[in-house]
Design goal:
Helices cover 37% and strands 26% of the residues. The protein is built from four helices and eight strands. A four-stranded antiparallel beta sheet has the order 1-3-6-5, with no helix packed on it. A four-stranded mixed beta sheet has the order 2-8-7-4, with no helix packed on it.
């Protein structure tokens, strides 16, 4: 029995060393693995807005950078809440291009990216979304933003047509044009393509079939008094 006394301290040393190495490996996996990004909330914003975006994922300990792809989005500051969450203070420039953006988190171990994790909306779409949310909150009835946009566009076209017919009739009554000329112009006007105009000018804008427009205020948005 005594011939093998040396085995006891050797076994104990082996257990201690193995345990220490396992601890180092676990720590390495927890702190040095490449980060991953799985979500951003809210997942969208609009030009001129500054908001807090909560980025979720893994391996965020000691993050060195948080970024959104493309121009027009600035991360002013960020806080590493824990290894799976970062809160970023984000500003979207007035001239930021609408569309999907990648969201990335960088650490010493590398960079994790969520493709298309955040979307810059047009101010028009943001307004439509918000109107639908408020209506649903107040009534319990959901409205599709696209249906609302289509309704606005239809109402705008009908009002433009009515205004044009009234103007043409006045010109006929004053003897400045004939009824035939008025009818021909109205027929031409109503047969024009339904072209979506850019978001310029005042809300409602001008032009046949144009979408909702904006003018004044911050980033070309509605004035405080309202551009309705």
């Amino acid at each position: 029995m005594w011939k093998h006394k040396w085995l006891i301290p050797v076994l104990l040393l082996t257990v201690v060393v193995a345990g220490s190495l396992t601890g180092v490996a676990l720590a390495s996996n927890g702190d040095d693995s490449q980060p991953t990004v799985t979500a951003a909330a809210p997942a969208s914003g609009w030009p001129g807005e500054t908001l807090d975006v909560v980025v979720s994922g893994t391996g965020f300990t000691n993050a060195t950078a948080v970024s959104f792809s493309g121009t027009g989005i600035t991360v002013n500051d960020y806080t590493v809440d824990n290894t799976t969450q970062i809160t970023a203070d984000v500003s979207i420039a007035c001239n930021a291009t609408s569309g999907a953006r990648d969201v990335s988190v960088t650490t010493a171990a590398g960079t994790g990216t969520l493709s298309g994790g955040f979307t810059v909306e047009t101010r028009q779409q943001a307004l439509l979304d918000r109107v639908c949310q408020i209506y649903e909150q107040n009534t319990g009835v959901a409205i599709d933003p696209q249906q609302l946009k289509d309704a606005f566009t239809q109402a705008q076209r009908e009002m433009q047509d009515e205004a044009l017919q009234s103007r043409l009739q006045k010109l006929v009554d004053e003897g400045k044009i004939t009824q035939e000329e008025a009818d021909q112009y109205l027929e031409w006007w109503q047969s024009r393509p339904n072209i979506e105009l850019p978001e310029l000018g005042g809300f409602g804008g001008h032009g046949h079939g144009g979408g909702m427009m904006w003018g004044g205020g911050r980033c070309g948005g509605p004035n405080e008094a309202g551009d309705w």
